Amino acid sequence: MDNQKNLLIAVVLSVVILVGFDFFFKPKKPFEENSVEQAQMNQREDSGEDVNLPSINSQIENKANENDKLVEERITFNSKRLTGTINLIGATMDDLSLKDYFETINKESKIKILNPVSSTSPYFLRIGWASPDKSVKLPNKDSRWKSLKKSYSENEKIELEWNNGEGLTFFRTIEFDENFLISVVDKVQNKSPKTIKLTNFSYLRRLNYRPANKFFILHEGPLGVFNDTLKEVSYDEIEENNEIIETTKNGWIGYTDHYWQVTIFPETNETFKARFKNLKNRNNSVQIDFINENIKTLKSGESLKTKSYIFAGAKEVPLIDQYIKKIGINKLDLSVDFGWFYFLTKPLFYALHFLSSLVGNFGVGIIILTICIRIVLFPLANKSFKSMNSMRMITPEIQRIRERYKDDRQRMNQEMFAMYKEKKINPAAGCLPILIQIPIFFALYKVLFVSIEMRHAPFFGWIQDLSAPDPTSLFNLFGLIPWDTPAFLTIGIWPILMGVTMFLQQKINPPPPDPIQAKIFMMLPFIFTFLLATFPSGMVVYWTVNNILSIAQQYILLRKQSKENINQRS
Questions:
Q1: Is the whole-model pTM more than 0.90?
Q2: Disulfide engineering: 92 pairs with which of 69, 87, 129, 144, CB 3.0-4.6 Å?
C-alpha cells in the first residue's frame, strides 16, 4: 500500500514540475523593437570604441561626446547570399541579412545577422588602424568615409576612402564571395614627411543580447580558436574576469548562435592578440576584438596593405570545411558544436547530409540513418538481449529468493549470486554493449540538434518544420476543438507515438528485480512523453523510429532464442 502511495505521489509531483516549469520559467519576451528608450541607451553605450588593446594604448579611446546625435550615411550592397547596408560613419558594418534563411517557415522576414546601434540589440563590426604614436590622426568611429557609389550589386567590390588631412590616405576594399565570406583589404598611403608605425585591428560588439533559447548541450556566445584549441567562453566568465586575452597565430574569434555565427580573423600568417571584454552594461553586452601584433613601419612615400576576413552567416558544415581548405581558416568547423564525440558526430552528420540529399527529405534521411545504425549495432544488441533474456528466464526464481529472505539482506544477495553462478549468468553482461552504444546515439542526437539542415525542413503531413515541436495536441483532439492549449499540454502525435513505443519496449524487456524500480521504469514513458513534446520534431521522429526498431529487433531475437530453447529440449 505504501509503495502504491509513493508511486502516486511521484506521478503527481512529475506533473506539477512540468506545469510549474512552463509557468514560472517560460522564456521572457524579447525586447520590443520600437523601444525608443532602449535605442537611446544603446547609442550612449557606443559613445567610444573602447578597444584599448594591451599592445597599443593609443588613440583608440573615447573621443565622442555622449550627447552627440547618431549620424548615419549609408550605402547598400547585395551579394549572392547576403544583403544589407554599411554606415559610412566609421565604415561600420551593422546591417546584414541572409537572403535564403528566414525567421519562420512563411518566409516573411529574413534572418538578420548584424543590427545597427539604433536597434534594441545592437550587433556591429568595425575595422580600424592603431599606432603607438598618439599624434597620428587615424580613422575612428566618427570618421566619414567616401564611397563612389550609393549601391553595390552582386560581384561588385565596395571601395571606400578616408583622408586624415595630414598626408595619410586610407583605402578599404570589401569583397563578398558567393556565400558568407567577406574579405577586407585595407591600404594606407603615406604622403606625409613622417615615418608612421601602424597596425590593424577589428572588433565585434554585441549589446543587450538575450539568446532565444538556452540549451545545456549547445554553446551560444563568444568563442575562438587559439593555438589550435577551441575556447568557448560564457558571459558569466567574461563578467567575472572583465576581459580574457589570448595570443595566437592562425586562429579566429567570434560569436556563435544556434545556427548562425560571425567570426573575424586576420590573414593566416599573422600573429594577433584576441580579447573577450565585458562592456559593463547589462544583458550580456560583450566586445570581442583582435589586434595585429606585427607593427609595420610606413616611410614617407610608401604604402602598406593588410587583409582580414569576416565569416557572417549560417553554420553550414560542408561550406565551412571548404573555407578551411580554400583559405586555411584553422579549425573553423569547431564553431559548429559537435561536442565531445566529435570523431563520431561529424561523420554521422555527413552520412545524414548525404542520405537526406539523396532522398530529398531530411526526416526520411533521419529514419534511414537510424536503420543503418541499428544494423551496424545489431551484434552488440543481440549479445545484450541474450543476457537480458537469460535474466528474464530466472526472474521467478529470483523473486522467490527475495520473498524467502526479505528480512535477511545479506543471505538474499548470497543466494542470488549463487543462482547466477549456477545458471552461468552475468547480470552486468548486458550493460557493456549498451554502454558502447550510448556515445553513438548521443552523437546522433547532437547532430540532429545542431544541424541547420533540419531547420524549417518539412517532413510529412502536419510536420512542416522538423526543428520545431509537434504542433498538434492531444488536449484539443489534435485540432478538432478550437482551443489553443498551454505549452505544457501541447503533446502532439509524434510524442505520443514515442511514449507508446517506449512503453511497449519496456514491456518486452525483463522488469527490474525490485518492484519499486519496476514501477518507476513504467512511469518513464509517461514522463518522457511530456518532456519530448517540447523537443524538435526531428528528434522525436528519431526516438520513435529507434524505439520501433528496438521492439522489432527484440521480437526477432526473442523468437530466435525461443526456437533455440525448444531445439535444446528436444
A1: no
A2: 87
